[in-house]
Amino acid sequence: TAAKKKPNRPPSWKRRKLAEQGGEGTSGGADRDAEMEDCGANDEAEGSAFGSRKFAPSVKTNDVSGLLKIPRVYLYNMKSCLLGTVGFPRRHVLMTLADDSDGADQLLMDMFLSDLRLGFSKRTTASKKATATTSALSLPRSLRHLKPLARHMIQKAKVCNCAKLLQEFCPSPAELERQGELPSAAWDPQQNAAKKDILEYSTPPKHIGDFIWAVFRFITPKKLLGSKHNQKALKCAVMKFLCKKHYEEMTLDEAVFKLKTKEFSWFCPPGCGGEGKTGSGKVPASQQRKFAGLLKRWVLWVFTRVVAPLTHANFYATDAEGKGTTVYYFRHDFWRSISKHYLAGLCGAAPGSIRGPMLEQVKACDFVEAVKKNKLGVTHVRLLPKGKGMRLISNQSKATEIDLPEPYSGNIGQLVRPPINASLREAFCVIQHEIRAVPGILGASCFSDKDIYEKLGAFLRDHKARGSDQKLYMVSCDVQKAFDSIDAERILAMVGGLLRKEEYDLHKFITASTWTKDLYTKTRQTCEVLPPDDTFEDGFRYPHHVILNKASSSRVKASALREIVREHLMSNLVYAHGKFYKQVKGIPQGSVLSTLFCSLYLANLEVTRVFPRLSLAESQDHAEALKFHLRHGAVEEAGGDVAMGA
Hints:
By secondary structure, the chain is α+β, with helices and mostly antiparallel strands.
């Protein structure tokens, strides 16, 4: 007799489709249990440190891979520092769920079912539909024995005295000053700096880890924590997470390192044969895969729902000037106080200072008029510790999306503008084109290693040709407050002298790089010239790139460029710590034009102040550049020193 033919098995994509549609062989809870056993059957998740989509990065956990990165970027968000909350955020999943059976179901789904991680804050129409779908699904039978533990967590989270634990493990600098363990954090208004190094008032990561672990142990049942060995391993993983540097990442494999599944008694429900003990007898391979998947999902939930939000809601994480990418943590109350002092110092001139205030706080009535008149967005800034003082770091590549507070709202409500650098792209392209047309107009400024090599090489060859035996030295120095000391009116006059045409043609093209395995493309913009024009190669050298013409051209008027540059320099609005300021001195940092303007200003300083003192003869190669700078006058002096700083 012929052998019985084995029936053909449908492909995996068809089986998944049938399972989603409730096709043949699928039956509610049994299929959900099978899905839990197969660690690779879940859709993508939306994980958050807050239980809120607004602040949440999307965490894809299709296979709960050990290479999955635990998100750390939201540790550096500034918004919670302004709220003044202690403990869990107000919209945290444990704070919003009800202490009942439905709340326990939703918490367990948030822990173990990645495709059901939904936000519990502002719910749009789409999120409401998703919530209805979530409530229609039932909790898998393999997880129902954990409902009492989930209810215990919700109850304990709502009664946990996080403020007391925070003060016990991470006392505020004011308390440490009273105890004599820290020097006084008095602020010197004349120097606009603290009397001691600001980093001395940071909280060590070990203390933060102790605080988080104390909160976690209070809200988590002992059965869910596992054995003492597993508790110690998980605490070590939390410490490692907090000690990571700014751009370092932590994988899920690192988080579950040394955790033993056989020492978690909650894996097996009562009546499954092991009576809640995974270490009794030999466990089948399929059960082990299921336990490993559950453990990874639970550890991921601990880091994204407990460790990250507790850190972010109580501490401000930042790097420091001159300290590399090491992360320092400051209590929110201390950071708000010291930032307030520093911003007040920028708004008021120190006694005896010749520079005057850099910022000016904008009144509510003036702000509404300025927003209606301006086309550019708002500069977002953050403060960076720098010894006893701080440094203002501006970000003009970020789009403006600010919910205006009551004094500033008026009839606007929400301020939405594109990034400032995106609006200045055309002006940058045209000004760069005109600068290239005048050789030497930027003086000794260098923008790449190639520029340094060419200029230094030419100088050394000339020095050798003269037969001079004079020794050469390299001097490293810094211009104090360079961008803050630049005269914006003089820069506007120089820009007006650079724009010699009434209109400019702009063209877009694409550069494709094949250096790596993946094709990398970038859209660029050029002024007046476009390949295959021979002049295109001047200043546009992209080795190992393929240039593609997008056939996209536009024409811009010089008057419009002057107007947007004037608005950028004279009406720059700054948003910091919930308040709006106007920059009244210097030029904005962080824009695409700031480096060009600073180099242009320093070149004027070279021609009008340095060259006469060195008795240098005018070079015929750069005669046009010398005439340009002499035509726009010399950098003014103040108090015997050049206004650019000491």
